[in-house]
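Many introductory courses stop at the sequence. We go one step further.
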Amino acid sequence: MQKKIKMKIALIGYGKMGHAIEEIAAEKKHQIVLRIDIENAADFTIENLRRADVAIEFTTPHSATENIKKCLDAGVAVVCGTTGWLDQWNNIKQHCLDKDGTLLYASNFSVGVNLFFELNSFLAKLMSKYKEYDVMLEETHHAQKEDAPSGTAITLAEQILQQVPSKKSWVNHISDNPEELEILSERVGLVPGTHKVKYKSEIDDIEIIHTAHSRKGFAAGAVIAAEFVYGKKGIFSMKDVLNN
């Protein structure tokens, strides 16, 4: 049985997700020692970061990489859930290694979504034998989400590309090219997140769907990830957390 720990957490990004994480952290008796948002960006300093054991970063694609670097420079483990910045992944990975730091990135922290990832990969492997089926993705999120497709949709697409040889790349639009995997994105209202993988043929369709009802699942998973990296060094994913 895992020993219960009490952590000091820095929240980098204090929007709706930050508030949801704070609620879960408080239930688990962790202490929030730093809350950073646009209004108090001047407080985002190395000195203030060093008060924390772990930083949980949920901001925007254009600021995530610098936020992660600053946390690593402070010697603080980082759990990052911001998507849309992975073109900089190799640079961030090297920075983490250079600093002998700790980084856990996930496109989605929900336990349910990570189970959905496993189901998606298994189904793609199974369906790759049946050439009469084509595959596509649909994802819907709230209107404030900046990146499209979502990080979760990209993870699902890349899993499919690994298993289905007929698909060579993904695109974020309708396509007539059979080698392209379509991801159709919709941004509307306050939807926390819905992802659908559809295999279709002339005879029938097969679909798997994950629908989030609130941010609570994402927030709970982020806190679980922070507990996992506490006291560790290295680069991790949610698969490491769930296999622990």
